[in-house]
Automatic annotation (TrEMBL), chain C:
Residues 41-399 form the Molybdopterin oxidoreductase domain. NCBIfam families: one_C_dehyd_B (TIGR03129). The lineage of its organism: Archaea, Methanobacteriati, Methanobacteriota, Archaeoglobi, Archaeoglobales. It comes from Archaeoglobus fulgidus. This is Formylmethanofuran dehydrogenase subunit B. InterPro entries: Formylmethanofuran_DH_bsu, Mopterin_OxRdtase, Prok_molybdopt-oxidoreductase. It comes from the Archaea. GO terms for molecular function: formylmethanofuran dehydrogenase activity; NADH dehydrogenase activity. It holds the Pfam family Molybdopterin. GO terms for cellular component: membrane. One of its GO terms (biological process) is methanogenesis. Keywords: Oxidoreductase.
């Protein structure tokens, strides 16, 4: 297990594609891991304290990582625990393993997630489990749980997997969704635009679009794409 | 001064077929040995290497509004990183490329000239801004005439003098190079939601037909004596059964003669070579078209070959682009342009497992193989058929039946019954393929100093790590493909710009444009133009591109 | 001088006449004329409020930019392409962020275009053919005063001869000046554009039965009426503005409208286009697109362009405190950006290049005054529909052009960086 702590307050954001794989390396190697500090390529050890405790495939990011982006990119196994906020693009293209964020997450959480688990104890921002700019398919597997609230654009173009938001969400939940499940315990805005399949469950209020048919299953649509997605309350 | 020593030169224009020869360069031109001081020459040892003129791409979509719309629409295309900024520019792009990427990639491959195939006249300045941002290559642009109301009006009046004056005026205003015609009449029909289906359909709102548009523009072009001929994107592109329209269009060249070159160039014929009546029974019409082209001595074509992988359909053929969007459900951009033309952009791809894509792939190659090598230019109608960086793939395929057999095993078997490709034994020679990529496109465009290595030619030279005297082109196709992908040296205007695929020096080429104003009396057409500008959204005084706005213009005057 | 081109709004009217004696422009609207009137200028280059030479100011600017880990280069919508191109290359060389004004205005249209494409036309096409024009969340009578007479409302076209042959519809949250001259006004509940467009798509594609009696404050009958008009149009045009791009829904609003237009094109002809604000905001996006692949929110930290509006739009960069220097060209972020973003801008060294003083000038460490394109300098700009126009030089000046200033900065940066 590696414990990584910021040494100082950062002047600009950092881009550090830290994954649990790093825990398999020696501390010297980890300190030499290249990260981007603005346009400077810098060694991890310059900006962060690194301590190794045991052989677990686990990273503990101890502190405010709210301006550290791309944590957990493409990870396949192991665990990352962020004892604070985490920056944008956390868990991007994740295939397995677990990320726990004890604080808040920034935009673009779990881009095109294919497997694994992300748990955010605080709030997430916009773009949770979505397809990246110009890509056709979003999340295909895995599970994202937000204990707090989330912003706009949740599970767009989803084709599998599960997203659970215990608080409220914004607009554009499950836009162009094909498969998978999104569950919102609070309220949200526009849901299921151009949805073709999959299921969205909402406990609180939401803005039903005028393109869904009421059936026993729930609201089925979006008729504009001859969709068979289901929106239901619980 | 440059001395390329002991290279094996293939220069079809000058009838040099794999001869060991020295090439001398001075002040950006190829010169005779007696014109250089050998002691002052930089020497390139080209022993055992192929030396040819830099490639000439006479039909590609490299600059202008629709190319930029394609980039903007497709961040997934732009995310591929080719070069990181340093001494040279960063370059990005998968098949669509940024402007610097276009220049660098052509150069790495040994190509030194490329022409933007379709320039919307009112957007000419945008096309030139983008051309000016492309490094390394010489360039030009072809403004489109086939749906321009002013053209329709001249033809309605059956006034050839007016049409000639209009063409000369338009090419000067757009700083263009020639007369491009895209789906004549069809794009105007699209403004009403339709298209034209035959050469004799009436264009809505005007008393003209596609047949008339093409023939009158050929007449005007030939009487003006422009360096390039009419360059035609036929009606019915992409429609099964369209090969007949293509043949009819090709035959419109009958009766016209030009001692220097063809009177009609038909472009990306692959997309216009389909037999059958729907996509269910579509087949190849390439053999029929090849027969007709081979029987005529005043028509040339270019292949428009399809390459498996990603591509982007972008043309001035707006109605076709919409029907493609409907067919495959892809994203679609459209740009109806004043009273001049239109455009459409749709992302596409070619998969070997798809029967239709395999058919398209096969047809492109059929055309390259069946048509006489002095009548067919190698292109992929970049980016419609695929990347220009895969021209070496097409080159290697044309020269090797074995390579084709291997590829045929990987594609959908639909091509076995619907094309003649499996049965074609032809293996074009290196001489022919170099002609199809250098001397022929230069001749078709009317660029006398391009595409060859004779004294007086521009010193645009490519040296490949390939010994033509010791290479078995039929069997060593992997090596052939690899060698042509990356030139050992690319020389532009006498300067080494790339070496082994690495950038050595960034240069900016010339933009050729044609000035035929001396051949006409502009006053014949100016009153009509002034009147029709009521229907434009800009002032006539603000229309057009002044030469001094271009970085490096090169004016070809027609006298 | 004839054929003067206006450099105020995206209409880029090019029929102006400049009276050299009276130093006044004729034919332009109030907004455009104001641009040509005498205005307060930044007198000379300054560092920390002290007047210096151009060379000194440029040296200081270079020092700040080269030492920054992440410089933000923002603005660009009110300058010419020649300058923008240098700016993009400079951002690439510096490894900084390039962003332009669209990120707070019409960027949603670009995002929508990425999702669906943009079925559009030039303004001349609309003038000649459009028998139905819808202004959605756009009020040209105030923001683009001559748009209607030149292109979209009373313009005299080839097939549509005048105002009487055109049906003008306004869809907006309140009756605007344009609504008052329209043939039909559809008032909608703020924030429901997305739902209303979905309803229109359903009605037009034969699923009207699913649509409830009221959507977004609009009765179903009105939506059915609107749908009928759209279906019956020979050539329709939707012009949309900040009413839809900067309110709830944003890029998804536009994306939905584009899908509506795609649907309509199956039976008739429709186009859609944004009513761009600044005279060359289109250029500020087109130039980087061909140079580096994207239109805005571009980061060059890794030595090549990366596009991420959520991270690299200027406001997002400032909110995350993700820049340590800024070069502001032809723009006024201090006046227009959210307070928290401006807070960070005040904490970093700012270089401003602009002809006119504005609120950003007050916080800038280095101020470099430039010539006004279209009056003191010639340059290429793109009208809102991407038609290129060459603005003219009418008056002489000693001010350097944005292009020249940026070129001098770039030259020195290249020397330092290699």
């Amino acid at each position: 297990m590696l414990i990584i702590k910021p040494k100082k307050e950062f002047e600009v954001c950092i881009e550090a594609e830290l994954t649990p794989e790093l825990a398999m390396k020696s501390v010297e190697e980890v300190r030499k891991f290249k990260v981007y500090y603005g346009n400077r390529v810098v060694e991890l050890g310059e900006l962060f304290e690194v301590v190794k405790e045991g052989e677990d495939k686990k990273l503990v990011l101890d502190g405010d990582f709210g301006r550290v982006k791309w944590i957990g990119t493409r990870m396949v196994d192991g665990e990352i625990v962020v004892k604070g906020n985490v920056g944008a693009n956390c868990g991007a293209f994740m295939r397995g393993g677990r990320i726990v964020v004890e604080g808040n997450a920034d935009d673009w959480l779990g881009i095109e997630m294919a497997g694994g688990e992300i748990i955010v104890k605080g709030n997430a921002r916009n773009l949770v489990g979505c397809a990246y700019y110009g890509n056709a398919v979003g999340m295909t597997g895995g599970k994202i749980v937000i204990e707090g609230n989330a912003g706009n654009y949740i599970g767009e173009k989803m084709n599998g997997g599960e997203i659970v938001i215990k608080g409220n969400a914004g607009d554009f939940v499950g836009t162009e969704m094909r498969a998978g499940v999104i569950e919102i315990h609070g309220s949200c805005g526009f849901v299921g635009g151009d949805m073709r399949g999959g299921e969205i469950r909402i406990k609180g209020n939401f803005d039903l679009l005028p393109t869904f048919r009421k059936t026993e299953k729930g609201w089925v649509g979006d008729v504009n794409v001859k969709g068979e997605g289901v929106i239901k309350t619980f | 001064m440059l001395w390329i020593k002991n290279g094996i030169v293939v220069d079809p224009k000058n009838k040099i077929n794999a001869e060991k020869m020295d090439i001398f360069v001075k002040n950006g031109k190829i010169v005779a040995e007696s014109d250089v001081k050998k002691e002052d020459c930089k020497i390139i040892d080209a022993s055992g290497k192929l030396v040819v003129a830099g490639g000439v791409d006479m039909h590609a979509h490299i600059a202008g509004s629709k190319i930029n719309t394609g980039r903007t629409m497709r961040p997934e295309e732009m995310r591929v990183v080719r070069n990181i900024a340093g001494k040279f520019r960063a370059t990005l792009g998968r098949v669509l490329l940024t402007a610097p990427a276009i220049g660098y990639e052509y150069a790495k491959m040994g190509y030194t000239t490329s022409f933007e195939a379709a320039q919307p006249p009112i957007g000419a300045l945008h096309t030139h801004e983008e051309l000016d941002s492309i490094p390394m290559i010489d360039k030009g642009a072809l403004p489109v005439f086939g749906n321009w109301h002013l053209v329709f009006k001249c033809i309605e009046e059956k006034n050839l003098e007016k049409l000639k004056a209009l063409v000369a005026w338009a090419i000067e205003r757009t700083k263009g190079f020639g007369v491009k015609v895209v789906n004549p009449g069809g794009v105007e029909a699209w403004m009403y939601g339709g298209n034209v289906k035959s050469l004799d359909d009436q264009v809505p709102g005007f008393n003209v037909t596609p047949r008339e548009i093409i023939t009158w523009l050929i007449r005007a072009n030939e009487e003006l004596g422009l360096p390039h001929s009419v360059h035609l994107h036929c009606n019915n592109l992409g429609v099964p059964g369209n090969y007949q329209t293509t043949i009819e269009s090709i035959k419109l060249a009958n009766g016209f003669r030009n001692p220097k070159r063809q009177v009609l160039h038909v472009t990306h014929v692959q997309f216009n070579a389909y037999a059958g009546s729907s996509w269910r029974d579509a087949a190849s019409g390439a053999a029929e078209i090849a027969k007709v082209v081979n029987s005529m001595d005043n028509v040339t074509i270019d292949m428009g070959a399809a390459i498996f992988g990603h591509a982007t359909a972008m043309t001035g053929d707006a109605p076709f682009q919409f029907s493609l969007h409907k067919l495959i459900g892809a994203r679609w951009s459209n740009k109806d342009t004043e009273v001049e033309t239109g455009a459409g952009i749709v992302p596409i791809g070619y998969l070997p497992s798809n029967p239709v894509h395999s058919l398209q792939w096969a047809i492109g190659l059929e055309l390259g193989l069946l048509v006489d090598s002095n009548k067919v230019v190698l292109t992929t109608d970049y980016p419609n058929g695929g990347p220009f960086t895969e021209y070496p793939y097409v080159m290697a395929m044309l020269m090797s039946k074995k390579m084709r057999e291997g590829e045929l095993k990987k594609v959908h078997q639909y091509v076995q019954k619907t094309t003649t490709l499996p049965s074609i034994d032809t293996e074009k020679t290196l001489y022919e393929v170099i002609h199809m990529t250098r001397s022929l496109p230069a001749k078709v465009l009317g660029l006398e100093n391009k595409g060859h290595l004779g004294v007086g030619a521009d010193a645009d030279i490519a040296i490949y790590n390939l010994n033509p005297l010791e290479t078995d082109f039929s069997n060593e196709f992997e090596k052939v493909y690899k060698s042509f992908k990356t030139a050992e040296y690319t020389i532009k205007g006498g300067e080494i710009i790339t070496k082994n695929g690495e950038l050595v020096k960034e240069v900016f080429g010339k933009t050729f444009w044609v000035d035929a104003r001396k051949k006409v009396d502009l006053e014949v057409i100016m009153p009509d133009i002034k009147e029709y500008f009521n229907y434009y959204s800009v002032q006539l005084g603000n229309y057009g591109v002044e030469e001094r706005w271009l970085k490096n213009p090169s004016r070809l005057e027609v006298v | 001088m004839q054929d003067i081109i206006c450099t105020f709004c995206g209409s880029v009217c090019d029929d102006g006449e400049y009276d050299l004696e009276k130093r006044k422009v004729k034919k332009f609207c109030k907004l455009g004329s104001s641009k040509f009137a005498e205005k307060e200028r930044i007198k000379a280059p300054m560092i920390d409020g002290k007047e210096v030479s151009y060379e000194e100011a440029i040296e200081k600017a270079v020092e700040i930019l080269v030492n920054a880990k992440k410089p933000l280069l923002y603005g660009w919508a009110s300058t010419a392409n020649e300058a923008i191109r240098v700016g993009v290359i400079l951002a690439e060389k510096l490894g900084g962020v390039y962003d332009q004004c669209a990120s707070v205005c019409h960027a949603p249209g670009t995002l929508a275009m990425i999702e669906e494409g943009l079925p559009g036309a030039t303004l001349g096409s609309v003038k000649n053919r459009a028998d139905v024009v819808i202004f959605w969340g756009s009020n040209p009578m105030e923001a683009h005063p001559r748009h209607g007479t030149r292109y979209s409302i009373s313009a005299k076209g080839l097939l549509v001869k005048d105002r009487k042959q055109r049906k003008i519809i306004v869809v907006d949250v309140r009756p605007t000046k344009t609504a008052k001259i329209a043939d039909m006004f559809v008032q909608i509940k703020p924030g429901y554009d997305y739902a209303i467009i979905s309803a229109l798509r359903a009605i037009i594609s034969g699923n009207a039965d699913v649509v409830p009696n009221e959507v977004g404050g609009v009765p179903k009958e009105k939506l059915v009426e609107l749908a009928e008009i759209m279906k019956k149009a020979k050539y329709g045009a939707i012009f949309y503005g900040l009413g839809v791009t900067q309110s709830r829904g944003r890029d998804r609003n536009i994306e939905n409208a584009i899908k509506l237009v795609q649907l309509l094109n199956r039976t008739t002809r429709w186009v859609i286009w944004p009513m761009r604000g600044h005279y060359n905001v289109v250029g500020a996006g087109e130039v980087p697109a061909w140079e580096v692949g994207y239109q805005y929110a571009i980061d060059f930290s890794r030595g090549y362009a990366r596009f991420s509006p959520a991270e690299f739009s200027a406001v997002e960069v400032l909110l995350r405190k993700d820049c340590d220097a800024a070069l502001i060209v032809a723009s006024d972020p201090v006046a227009h950006f959210p307070k928290m973003a401006v807070k960070h801008l005040k904490q970093i060294p700012v270089i401003q290049i602009d002809p006119f003083p504005n609120m950003t000038t007050l916080i800038a460490k280095v101020v470099i005054p430039s010539a006004v394109y279209g009056i003191e300098a010639e340059g290429t700009v793109y009208r809102m529909d991407c038609v290129p126009l060459r603005v003219k030089k009418i008056l002489e000046t000693n001010y350097w052009t944005d292009e020249k200033i940026l070129e001098e900065i770039l030259k020195r940066v290249e020397k330092l960086r290699g």
